Structures are given as C-alpha cells and as structure tokens.
C-alpha cells in the first residue's frame, strides 16, 4: 500500500524527525573531539533515573510494525509471545543483573566475558554480540514505512533511513541518543494514543471490538501453537544478553537507578503493548489488510485525519529509529572497541567507535535485504546468539569467583555450533534448534560447576 499524506502531515513527520535529530546534535558528549570513549559510549556513567527510563523505554520498543504483523497472523496470543515473557525477563534482569552490571568495571559484554573467562571466550562473545546487535530488523521496519509513504523501493528507503539515523549518534554517542529519545518517546506514545482514539470513534469502543472480531483472533495457542509460544519465551531470554540494555545499565548513575529504572520501564512497556495490540486488533477486524507488516499503517490510512496522521507516522518513525540508533551505538562499540582497537592493540577510541557505527549501518542493509521479514530477523538473530551467550554471561555476574577459564570458549562455542548445524541440515526449525542448544549450554555449565564444587571439597 501507499500511505497517503497531506502536505501538513509530511511537514509534521519531517519536523518530528528533524527535531529529534536536532536535539541529538545539540546535546553531544562534552568530550567529542577529545577522544573520551567512556563519555561517548556510556555518557560518563551518569544517567539519572528519568533519563535512564526514557532511553530504555524508547530503545526497547522499536518493533512496532512486527506487533501488527503478529496480530494479523496469530491474533491475541501475541501478548504471550511479545509481552509476558519479556516482562518477566526484564523484572528479573532489574532485580538480579542490572545492579551487578553497574558495579562491574566492564563496559561491554565481550569485555565482561574476557575479564571472567579469558581472551578466547571474549573473542567468541565479540562475534555473538556483533550478530545480536544488528539494527537490521529496525532498518527494515523504517524502510517499509518510508516505502509506504513514498512508493520508493525498499533499497532506496533503507539507504535514506541509514543516512538520516546515524548522524547524531556518530557525533555524540549515548548522550545524543538519550536526548533524542526524549522527543521520540513523546511522539511514539502520542501517535498510538491518537490512533486508538480515532479507531474507537470510527468503529466503536472496546466492547464493539470484542463482539466483532473473529473468534480465531482470541484463540490460545492459536495458529502458532504451544511450541511456537515456548519458542518466543526462549527468545525473550535475549533480554539477558541484550547489549543495548547492558549498555544502559552500565551507564546508570548508581546501581539503584539501574534496578528501579528497569522495573519502572516494564510498566511503560505494558502500556505501549496495550496501545499497539489493541489498534492492531481494530485494523485486522475493520480494515482490509493485505500485508501483515502494514497492519497499523492501513488503520491509520483509514481513520486518521490530517495532522493526526502526521503525528502518528512521526511516532512510528520515532519508535523504530530510537531502537535502530541504540543498536547502532552498541554494535559500533563492539566493532570499534572489541574488534578494531583490540586487533590494533590500543585503548578504545572514539574514531574506532564511529567507524563501527558506519560498518553497522552497511551490514544491516545487507542483512535486511537477505531476510525481508522482521519476525524472521528477530528469530534468526536471537537463535544464533542466545544459546552461546546467555548462561556464561549470567554466571559471570552472579558467581564470577566460581567460573573457570579452562574450557569456557568451548562451552560457548558448542551451543552456537549446534544451532548452525541443525539449521544447515534442516533437522529442525530455529525455535527447536535454539531450545536444544540452550539445554546443552545449561548442561555443560552444570557439569563445570559440579566439578568445581567436587574439587573444592
């Protein structure tokens, strides 16, 4: 479909994007040009509670169009796949992991792995983090939206989004991103509130929606099945190895800010889930949706008047770009600090970080073109990384004194190779491959801990 926008809508969308980018350019790191990697990457580890919550909420929820895609395909069961497991994971992360991250000296996940398990394990973690931090799913969503607005090809849309979205991140790092997140958060919530209000005015309230929607939309487990739901619960474990969250926990001003900020953020995510799922149900029930990924856009085209439509589209762009920029930063950190600077044998530099962000944008375009489905991208990236990284990373924070460097690289590599082999041989789908590899990872680390305890007796 082509999303029809009046001139005033186009002005609003452009102005909202320029406002966020402009704020990001203005609020730059105090040390830009002086080579302070810590200030660019972690904002000097001085994020206050409001700023921590704003940036965490804005960068977490970029998968706006994928919610509509999931509702169109599977119905209300989306809450058991995209909602509940992530809430539980985030609460546990806030209570157990986030304060430990803030107290640790490590800046990145590979650095933490290397500090506890040694350089070989750190190199494997670097590869895994470089994969999971790809902004490709969010680049694809933003390009789909620009394509719907303009009719431009997906390739051209990807290129434009990449150029527009990385400028202030390259310039100011996390401080610039947090400043832009303030504008983006207001836009993303405001846009979906407007969409819900106008949908209710056009078609009726929630009672009418419940009476009218197809019974198949309310079925649990629905077409995805319990196996599919279990797969998404496993994918939600990605929360514990998400470098985007890790970076913000490390950047918090205190461990208390990291802990309480994570719990507060969960409430904001639940509210936004209600907005996106409810509006998607209105779209599937009352609108003529032909492509799942365009579910929310079709509803917006149908019910929103000028100005409101511009705010909504600006809000969708804000939600996607905030997450895209966040992942561009952490992948830039991984490529710049953990690969380029490590290979050159020098300390972390801002120049390497900026090169890393540019490389991140280019590789994301290639990946999004190769896998043109947002949900498939999420499944593929998580399936490859979670089994190898989840258990060793959690143990490195919870009981680092009991971890052994010997064999650590193998314990990380084996689960990842299992996923790759099962996929290459078409033995099982990605969900089954990931769950199998996770069981192997838990078993290997359990044996290691048992041997360590036996030797200490």
Summed up:
With 457 residues, the chain is mainly α.
Report on this structure:
With 457 residues, this protein is mainly α. The chain has one domain (7-379): Sodium/glucose cotransporter. It is built from 19 helices and no strands. Helix 7 packs antiparallel against helix 17 and helix 13 crosses helix 14.
Q: Supply the CATH superfamily name.
A: Sodium/glucose cotransporter
Uncertain parts: 29-34
Shape: globular
- For the record, the count of structural domains works out to 1
Tell me the name of the CATH class: Mainly Alpha
Instruction: Count the beta strands.
Output: 0
Strand content: under 5%
Chain-averaged pLDDT: 86
By helix and strand content, what is the structural category?
mainly alpha
Helical fraction: over 70%
Topology of this protein?
Layout: H1 7-26, H2 37-42, H3 49-60, H4 64-74, H5 78-103, H6 109-117, H7 119-132, H8 136-150, H9 154-203, H10 206-212, H11 225-235, H12 243-251, H13 255-286, H14 295-303, H15 308-344, H16 350-370, H17 374-398, H18 408-424, H19 430-456
Features:
457 residues; mainly alpha
């Amino acid at each position: 479909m082509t999303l029809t926008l009046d001139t005033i809508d186009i002005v609003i969308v452009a102005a909202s994007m320029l406002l966020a980018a402009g704020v990001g350019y203005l609020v730059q790191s105090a040390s830009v040009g002086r080579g302070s990697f810590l200030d660019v990457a972690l904002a000097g580890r001085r994020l206050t509670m409001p700023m921590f919550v704003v940036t965490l909420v804005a960068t977490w929820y970029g998968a706006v169009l994928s919610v509509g895609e999931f509702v169109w395909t599977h119905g209300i069961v989306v809450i058991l796949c995209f909602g509940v497991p992530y809430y539980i994971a985030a609460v546990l992360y806030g209570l157990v992991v986030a304060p430990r991250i803030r107290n640790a000296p490590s800046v990145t996940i590979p650095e933490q792995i290397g500090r506890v398990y040694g350089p070989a394990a750190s190199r494997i973690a670097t590869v895994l983090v470089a994969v999971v931090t790809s902004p490709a799913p969010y680049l694809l969503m933003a390009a789909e939206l620009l394509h719907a607005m303009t009719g431009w090809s997906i390739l051209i849309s990807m290129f434009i989004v990449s150029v527009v979205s990385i400028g202030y991140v390259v310039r100011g790092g996390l401080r610039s991103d947090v400043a832009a997140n303030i504008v983006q958060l207001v836009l993303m919530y405001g846009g979906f509130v407007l969409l819900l209000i106008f949908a209710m005015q056009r078609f009726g309230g929630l009672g009418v929606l419940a009476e009218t929607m197809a019974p198949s939309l309310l079925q649990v487990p629905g077409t995805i099945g319990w196996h599919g739901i279990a797969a998404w619960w496993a994918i939600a474990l990605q929360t514990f190895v998400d470098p985007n969250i890790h970076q913000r926990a490390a950047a918090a001003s205190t461990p208390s800010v990291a802990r309480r900020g994570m719990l507060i953020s969960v409430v904001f995510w639940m509210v936004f889930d209600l907005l996106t799922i409810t509006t998607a149900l209105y779209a599937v029930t009352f609108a003529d949706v032909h492509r799942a990924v365009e579910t929310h856009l079709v509803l917006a085209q149908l019910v929103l008047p000028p100005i409101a439509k511009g705010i909504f589209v600006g809000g969708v762009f804000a939600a996607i770009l905030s997450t895209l920029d966040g992942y561009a930063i952490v992948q830039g950190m991984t490529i710049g600090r953990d690969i380029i600077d490590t290979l050159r044998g020098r300390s972390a530099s801002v120049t390497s970080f900026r090169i890393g962000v540019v490389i991140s944008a280019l590789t994301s375009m290639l990946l999004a073109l190769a896998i043109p489905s947002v949900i498939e991208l999420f499944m593929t990236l998580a399936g490859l990384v979670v089994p190898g990284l989840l258990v060793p990373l959690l143990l490195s924070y919870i009981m680092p004194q009991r971890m052994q460097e010997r064999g650590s690289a193998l314990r990380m590599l084996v689960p990842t190779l299992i996923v790759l082999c099962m996929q290459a041989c078409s033995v099982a789908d990605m969900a089954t491959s990931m769950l199998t590899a996770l069981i192997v990872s838990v078993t290997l680390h359990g044996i290691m801990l048992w041997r360590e305890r036996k030797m200490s007796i």
